[in-house]
Every structure is written in structure tokens, then in C-alpha cells.
């Protein structure tokens, strides 16, 4: 959680949220740029092989979200040090947001971001489409933090937890359909 219930910092919460969100956008954009560069390695593969691999990965993601198979996802088990957000609030929020925006700072429990990342590598789209997708990842994370901040209601977390399986399964199916449409 970015804000503690007893917030007493000299910086306003909305300002910290804005800096944190900027970090999320920048981190997602950087990750997408790296994915676009890596997609050059997939370009020489035959189109049919890339489509087959992409669909297999997408189906595996949807099946994992449905709970039919168990596939461990990569995770970074380290927690952010308390000092990052305690002593330099703005800089710490930017750093933390950037690390979260890259997708490598925390455990991402949903399969969809991994499916999209591998799909971007295999699809070998142009830099604009790829970078906008990464920026969208950062925006999605920023939207969650902003919605939580705007709600100012502890019940928000309870509602989010009950709806998350539905959302992740719907997103998994949407990702599968979107990746399939890339090659029609």
C-alpha cells in the first residue's frame, strides 16, 4: 500500500500518487521498449511458428487463469525497503512506481501480462504499438492505485478481491482474442 492510514508526511497524498503514477508509466514504457528490441530475435522465425507459439502461450494463460493447470510465474520476492518511501517521499514514490511499472519488482499473479509480453515478442509489432502496450500496463497499475486512493474506503479492497478472479479470466480471454486478431 502506497499510503498508510495515518499519513503525516509533508507531501500531499495526491502529489505522491501523481509521481508514483508517472513512475508506473515510465517503467511500463521501458519494459515495452525492451520487449520490442527482443522481438527482433523472433522476426526470422516463420510466421506459422510464431502464430502457433503465440496461440499456445495464450491458451496456456487462459487455462492457468481458469485454474485447470498450475504454472508458477516469475516473481521478485524482495520487498521494497521502508527507507525508499520514508525519507524521500517523492523520489521514493517515483522509484517504486518505476520498478512496479517495469513488471519485475513484484509478483504479478495474473497470466495476462506475461501472455501479452511474450505475445509482443512473438508478434514483432512496430515500436509504437509495442510501447503503447507497455504504457498501458503502467496505466493499468496507476488506475488501480488511483481508484484505491479515490475510494477512501476499506471495503474497496474486499470488493476488489472478490471480483479479481472474474476480471483476470475476462482479461485472459480478451488477450487471447486480441492476439488472435493480430494475425487475421
Automatic annotation (TrEMBL):
Keywords: Membrane, Transmembrane, Transmembrane helix
Protein name: Uncharacterized protein
Species whose genome carries this gene: Actinoallomurus spadix
Membrane-spanning segments: 16-39, 166-183
Origin superkingdom: Bacteria
Claim: Transmembrane helix is one of the keywords in the record: yes
Keyword Transmembrane helix recorded: yes
Amino acid at each position: 500500500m502506497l499510503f498508510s492510514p495515518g499519513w503525516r508526511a509533508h507531501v500531499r497524498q495526491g502529489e505522491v500518487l501523481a509521481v508514483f503514477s508517472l513512475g508506473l508509466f515510465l517503467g511500463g514504457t521501458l519494459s515495452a521498449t525492451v520487449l520490442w528490441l527482443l522481438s527482433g530475435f523472433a522476426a526470422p522465425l516463420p510466421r506459422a511458428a510464431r502464430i502457433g507459439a503465440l496461440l499456445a502461450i495464450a491458451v496456456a494463460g487462459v487455462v492457468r487463469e481458469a485454474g485447470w493447470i498450475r504454472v508458477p510465474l516469475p516473481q521478485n520476492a524482495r520487498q521494497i525497503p521502508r527507507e525508499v518511501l520514508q525519507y524521500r517521499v517523492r523520489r521514493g514514490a517515483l522509484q517504486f512506481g518505476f520498478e512496479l511499472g517495469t513488471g519485475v519488482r513484484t509478483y504479478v499473479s495474473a497470466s495476462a501480462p506475461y501472455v501479452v509480453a511474450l505475445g509482443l515478442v512473438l508478434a514483432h509489432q512496430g515500436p509504437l504499438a509495442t510501447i503503447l502496450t507497455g504504457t498501458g500496463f503502467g496505466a493499468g497499475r496507476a488506475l488501480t492505485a488511483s481508484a484505491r486512493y479515490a475510494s477512501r474506503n476499506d471495503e474497496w479492497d474486499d470488493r476488489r478481491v472478490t471480483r479479481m478472479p472474474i476480471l483476470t479470466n475476462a482479461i485472459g480471454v480478451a488477450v487471447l482474442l486480441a492476439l488472435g486478431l493480430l494475425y487475421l
